[in-house]
Design goal:
By secondary structure, the protein is α+β, with helices and mostly antiparallel strands. 45% of the residues lie in helices and 19% in strands. The chain contains four helices and four strands, in the order E-E-E-E-H-H-H-H. It has a four-stranded antiparallel beta sheet. Helix 2 (42-50) crosses helix 4.
Length: 84
């Protein structure tokens, strides 16, 4: 498994052929299919990020705040746009 950690808010899973298959927020333990995430609205991405607050606090000792949501959404859209 290859994980690209160069992004601040997102991690990506690549298969053995170097094709990106899944993504997860830095604060999450749950991977989502990339094709599914591409269809999410900003509101759905925000909900996904905020749903990970307890995991982030417990396992990463970080707090997911409203101020970190907008940059995470912007970063995801930029990554998707650059890699199409």
């Amino acid at each position: 498994m290859k994980i690209n950690k160069k992004y601040k808010y997102w991690e990506f899973y690549y298969d053995e052929d170097d094709n990106c298959q899944c993504a997860a927020t830095h604060w999450s333990e749950e991977w989502k299919r990339l094709e599914e995430l591409k269809k999410y609205s900003d509101e759905e991405l925000e909900a996904l990020i905020l749903d990970n607050q307890s995991f982030a606090k417990t396992y990463r000792n970080e707090k997911v705040t409203k101020r970190s949501v907008a940059p995470a959404i912007k970063e995801f859209k930029q990554i998707i746009t650059e890699n199409q």
